[in-house]
Amino acid sequence: MRSVSLYHHLLCFSLLLATHLTSVSSWKRDEFRNCNQTPFCKRARSRKPGSCSLIAADVSISDGDLTAKLIPPNPENPEDHSPINPLILTISVYQDGVLRLKIDEDPSFDPPKKRFEVPDVIVPEFLEKKLWLQRLSEEVIGTDSGPSSVVYLLDEYEAVLRHDPFEVFVRGKGGKRVLSLNSNGLFDFEQLRVKKEGEDWEERFRGHTDTRPYGPQSISFDVSFYGADFVYGIPEHATSLALKPTSGPGVEESEPYRLFNLDVFEYIHESPFGIYGSIPVMISHGKARGTSGFFWLNAAEMQIDVLGSGWDAESGIALPSDQSRIDTLWMSEAGVVDAFFFVGPGPKDVVRQYTSVTGTPAMPQFFATAYHQCRWNYRDEEDVAQVDLKFDEHDIPYDVLWLDIEHTDGKRYFTWDRVLFPHPEEMQNKLAAKGRHMVTIVDPHIKRDESFHLHKEATQKGYYVKDVTGKDYDGWCWPGSSSYPDMLNPEIRSWWADKFLLENYVGSTPSLYIWNDMNEPSVFNGPEVTMPRDALHIGGVEHRELHNAYGYYFHMATADGLVKRGDGKVRPFVLSRAIFPGSQRHGAIWTGDNTAEWEQLRVSVPMILTLGLTGITFSGADVGGFFGNPGPELLVRWYQLGAYYPFFRAHAHHDTKRREPWLFGERNTELMKEAIHIRYALLPYFYTLFREANTTGVPVMRPLWMEFPADEATFSNDEAFMVGSSLLVQGVFTERAKHASVYLPSGQSWYYLNSGTAYKGGRTHKMEVSEESIPAFQRAGTIIPRKDRFRRSSTQMENDPYTLVIALNSTQEAEGELYIDDGKSFEFAKGAYIHRRFVFSNGKLTSSNMSPSASGKSRFSCDCVIERIILLGYSPGPKSALIEPANQKAEIELGPLYLRNGRSPTVVTIRKPNVRIADNWTIQVL
Amino acid sequence: MKLRLTFLFFLLALIGRSASVPSKDLLGIAPQDEIYYKASSSGTIKCRDGSMKFTKSQLNDDFCDCPDGTDEPGTSACPNGKFYCRNAGHAPLSIYSSRVNDGICDCCDGSDEYNGNVKCSNTCWEAGKFAREKLKKKIATYQEGVTLRKKEIEQAKLTIAKDEAELSKLKNEEKILKELVQQLKEHKEQIEKAEEKERLQKEKEETEKKEAEEAQREKSKSMEEVPSQGQPMESENHDKIGLLENSPSDQDMGEQSTDNSGNEDVSNNEEQEDDAKKEEESPVAYESGPDSVSKEPKSLSKEELGRLVASRWTGENTGEQTREVDAVKDDKPEISKAPTDAHDEEYEGYDSEDESQRYNDDDDEEEERTEDFGQENHDDFSSSYKSVSDDELNLSDVTASSSPSWLEKIQQTVRKILQAVNLFQTPVDLSEAAHVRKEYDDSSSKLSKIQSRISSLTKKLNHDFGPEKEFYSFYDKCFEIKQNKYVYKICPFKQASQEEGRSTTRLGNWDKFEDSYKVMLFSNGDKCWNGPDRSLKVKLRCGLKNEATDVDEPSRCEYEALLSTPVLCVEEKLKELQDKLDLMNKEQPQGHDEL
Questions:
Q1: Could you say which of B77, B324, B527 has the minimum Cβ distance to residue A16?
Q2: Least C-beta-crowded within 10 Å: which of A679, B73, B84, B298?
Q3: Do A12 and B245 touch (CB under 8 A)?
Q4: Which residues of A are catalytic?
């Protein structure tokens, strides 16, 4: 019983500890290629403006498209690239102001290989929106020597193809340019060719060799945005919302923004380097012209330079100079030019136009919009039960409990560690009895273990991605030696989807949903921690050509699996880390392995806003920060901010201390609970916004300038954001902050959520901040629906009554919306929903139906009522209100703004109108 | 108005149907609170927080008027309210108002679900029966436990008294002995002075004699050494600290080698990983661009690279075998990392050397455990722990004989010596001189033993043993839990550890009691890679035996264990439980026939 420990000594331990602190490693820049180590990037970046001299020839209309051939000015005397075959250029026009430009090699010249075009990203409905071009006009523009071909695009917008040198642009009223391609003559297209004797195509990086059997095949070009003050977009990067220039005079030497899906260990908070996702969509915005957008559908590695003004000072190219302009340089390793121009002119127009191409965000299940509790790892069933119990003990609502990789049997997904989780169904059912859900992780790497049925099957069927020699590619990930299903192949995706059927996924229940991690794909021993570029997919497609879309296809297959499981009736929920255009159709995404630091809290806002601008609205950052231990203040601030993220999940690395909300003392528990309550109270509002995103593409969380496109002060603000059009939230990103500067956009006043007090818009307010909350404001003229009763989970809130918060503007008017459906099925798509519009004017609140009347076969009904109506900005006086058509009276009194402990400011309240949410009615203040 | 009436009717209908649901006014109100809601004569009731007033008709009208929930004890309207279920036949329960009419039966009498959306059957009687049985058992345990606890406290009092008596006796003896030692010292020094003088005088003559003298001195010196070996001398203590600074890495290396010897595969991987780590840590390997590129495949196989990268997230080896492994192994990167910062080369030499050394040390340790505690300690903490037993053993020849005679004997001897030895006799009587020296050495050795015992007793008595010193006996106890391949050792007031084979991980040193003596906290244990220092919380429960169970690691490197002991069986709690049982027995359901 006498434990003798001879060798330990406190002093020595503190010494050891000190040495450790210095050896903590973080992001390793050298492990990833920079532009100079990436030959195609280096070449493209070194090209001089005007070096492209291709000419558009044989311009004509065919099959409703404008087509042309791009040829060198003097085909007899080819310059730098020999031999050069003509390229085929196609311009198509779609409804709502979308121009599509394709440039590829001419198949009639029999190139060695068909270049890869990314399938299954463009939604079929988009193709139906094609306008069949009939006419083509020619004109000579300005001082040009040659002609240009012009086709109609939308209203006053036209698409123009200048012939010599070739240039494509969109112009609006008065011939003013909106967007253009190759105006700076940086276009370059490396054609596939046969290897010459003695030529070395291999590329080496840190001990990895890329055989590059097809040689150089990169594409680069410049895109100009006119009337632009800033450009935004091209996630995923941990950087500011308004993209900083990466090259040009006065710009510090910088890498281009890289789009290459990578599993970056401990990414840093300010960097143009590529992380988990790639969405090659850029949006420009300026006071002069409004908003426009550009999208290049290409899944190979991409690098994008934002060129600071004056970058081309010596080029001698004269672009129309009466318009402010931002030039950008786009470079990709492979693929084709398949680019889309969006004319705007408003921010929401561009988002709508873009999501008409790649699809609008899926409508999530209601529970998924609530709070998620995650950790690597909830260890066993008892741990799960304990955490669940603690939420109940503290009366903190939550909806989903997550299990990370340790729940599996040796990292074999679809299996359970039967020691830790002997009764998975029972565990899930226990949660489900409280209306809660569970999520388990399923990653794309499959353990190479002969006894693992999934591996056996995938091997037999030949479903794995192959290495350059044609053998199943063998990489290293969590389970050790692993292989990766070829998700490009629809047959394999369908096979994968079947694995989620209840009979196939042993231990799963209908309340179980899925998390796709590591789908960049992450390969621990691969080049740059991913798959070699010369690995092979179906049809001989090289991994380099589709790399950025691998995770997208995996996400798609998993979401399809859950749809199959629910017999096509239940909406899936799948969280993915890797992203590509179109990911919004398959589920939520999160910003990956962030760190518990204040700066990472700050950067989460521009990261999520940027994703929203490019279609991905259901996103969030790990609340608390994945790596490291947040102090209680940071954690509380993160909850306060995270409550407004579209996707609200707390997560932590397994080496961190436990950080469930009740572990930091009573006061902090109270604060985190309050933050979670705010989210639950606003769930009806959030859900309405998710529906808006689902129909229009407009994100739930928006940059201020999306709502106030004329207010220049908002253009580069990425510390504050809008939730919908009614709520403005300002983050607090510093420790022990006593004040926060909040810019409230002009035009309206704003009601401070904490007090109901109005603040003037169009100026910056220095607000006092307390630990209790971060500043948030309701815009005057809006109505927000709320539910003020809290339950264990969102599921039990279904029948609870609503509160309407009416924030009156200067003319004593306001309006808002509420969308409700069954929160689970696809019936809403057939019209089974309630969509109400609330308008307050002349002292009367009117509820009217927004859904197309009797359009759907399916109906949704709800007996919910409105129990309380709060009027902000209304002087007290009236004592009652008349409800019609019921002809009842409701009392008006001063009631609490919030039903929380402690004193609440009092506000004019219509008490218990108890009108049904589904009905038409009016409430007249008497 | 209509709606409110409907609601009332609905409630009335419910009340008519079910006897367990009180009237609307009283819904969700605890009996002791009924008075609060009846009290006012003006027809209004105050919100408890004083923020507002509400009328009787606003009580339980499903609209929240008081932010603190006073007006809606029986509905879910106020988020901060509480709903009281009577649960006749079982224990009453106060639940959050968020549970009212949420479709989930929370009260066993079903009173929380009255809106008709879900039917809850009354399960109070069955549940109550079960709960009462359990409670009765618990009470029985407490009853017995309370007695045991009293005994424990009495015993503690006796032991403390004994220890305190011993302490004061020792202090007394120390005082006397100190004086004697001082006298002997002076005497010895005088003799030595005389001898020195004599030596100088007779230096040139009688070489043979001198040799003999030398021989004699040698002899007496060797006699000195034997008993002094086990003495914790001041100077040795200083040396010890110097030695200790190396010990954790010794330990770590030892752990590693132990693991390695256990599994050939693992050891290979680990070594490789170590190499890989070094490669990574060394800035040259990564930053020198093209040069390092070609080097890399040589130093790392693909698999090793995979493991290496994985280890960044996990801080451990990702290999199948090792991933399933324990917290001790999780520390591997720490081990390989720590020294790299300093000097790689040194580290490598160190490595092999220490491994063998560690094995030896380990053997020593084993022997020590099985044989005796005679060896000197290297660890400050465990030394103090062991010194208790040390002194008990070594002092047994002096204290255990307990007759006052040993001290008197010494006193007498000293007196004799002081009288007998003629300092001015020349030549110095050699046997007498030796006698003095021996007497001095013996006495000072005894003194230091007594001093050490005093210090350990003082240290012990200074601990917080609880308001009634009820934990006194725990000072000399350790508790063991075997779980899978680990043995957890919990030594209250000292330290806690996790042992796996030969390797020991410290879970913490004794820190304090927490939660009014219901939790023992051990903190500042071995550092976790990328995590906190290990710590252990021992939750104490009333039980009839002192027994530790259920070690758990709810958060990485934060351990928890249960310890049942009669010491926790307090009388007040017993009374509370009995009251609870009485209440449960009293509140039989009137209409147990509802089902």
A1: B527
A2: B298
A3: yes
A4: 517, 520, 593
B366 in a structural domain: no
Please report whether residue B245 resides in a domain: no
The SS3 assignment for A903 reads coil
Which segments of A234-334 are extended strands (E)?
257-259, 281-286, 290-296, 302-307, 325-332
Window 133-192 of A: residues touching B by CB (8 A cutoff) are none
B458 and B514 share a domain? no
| Residues B73 and B109 occupy one common structural domain | yes
| Fold (topology level) of A368-443+489-521+549-705 | TIM Barrel (3.20.20)
How many angstroms separate the CA atoms of B488 and B486, rounded? Answer: 6
How far is B361 from B373, CA to CA, in rounded Å?
15
Note whether residue B311 is domain-resident: no
Q: How far is A657 from chain B (nearest CA, A)?
A: 6
- pTM reported for the whole predicted model: 0.81
Average pLDDT over residues A22-42: 78
Which residue among B102, B365, B524 sits closest to A10, beta carbon to beta carbon? B524
Contact A524 B307 (CB under 8 A): yes
- Residue ranges making up the domain that contains B43: 22-121
Confidence of residue B325 (pLDDT cuts 50, 70, 90): very low
Residue of chain A minimizing CA distance to B298: A207
Residue span(s) of chain A under CATH 3.20.20.80 come to 368-443+489-521+549-705
Q: Show residues of chain A in contact with B497, CB under 8 Å.
A: 3, 5
B565 in the same domain as B528: yes
Architecture of domain A39-358: Sandwich (2.60)
Query: How far apart are the C-alpha atoms of A790 and B64, rounded to whole Å?
Result: 13
The correct CATH number of A801-925 out of 2.60.120.10, 2.60.40.1180, 2.102.10.10, 3.40.50.150 is 2.60.40.1180
Contact between chains at A7 and B250 (C-beta distance less than 8 A) = yes
| The domain boundary residue, chosen from B104, B121, B138 | B121
- Flag if A6 and B382 touch (Cβ within 8 Å): yes
Task: Read off the amino acid at residue A610.
Answer: T
Contact check, Cβ <8 Å, A653/B495:
no
Q: Which residues of chain A lie closer than 8 angstroms to B504, CB-CB?
A: 3, 5
Residues of chain A with CATH 2.60.40.1180: 801-925
Confidence of residue B409 (pLDDT cuts 50, 70, 90): confident
Residues from chain A that touch B341, judged by Cβ atoms under 8 A, are 19, 22-23
Closest residue in B to A899 (Cα–Cα): B67
| Interface ipTM > 0.95 | no
**Which positions in chain A touch B506 (Cβ < 8 Å)?**
5, 8
Whether A704 shows a pLDDT value over 80: the answer reads yes
Instruction: Please name the residue of chain A whose CA is at the shortest distance from the CA of residue B503.
Output: A5
Find the mean pLDDT for residues A41-62: 94
Would you give the distance in Å from CA A687 to the centre of its chain?
Answer: 17
Bond prior to A345 in cis (omega within 30° of 0): yes
Name the average pLDDT for chain A.
93
Cβ contact (<8 Å) for B491 and A3?
yes
For chain B, what is the domain count? 3
**pLDDT tens-place string over residues A664-690:** 999 999 999 999 999 999 999 999 999
- Kindly state whether A478 is in contact with chain B, defined as any CB-CB distance less than 8 angstroms: yes
Based on the domain organization, do B456 and B476 belong to the same domain? no
Residues contacting residue A116 through CB under 8 Å, at least 6 positions apart: A299, A300, A334, A335, A336, A541, A542, A545, A546
Chain-chain contact of B318 with A524 (C-beta, under 8 angstroms): yes
Q: Crossing angle, helix B264-281 and helix B302-314, to 10 degrees?
A: 80
Cα A48 to its chain centre, rounded Å, is 34
Residues B478 and B438 in one domain: no
Residue holding tokens 């010194």?
B387
Whether A389 has its CB under 8 Å from any CB of chain B: the answer is no
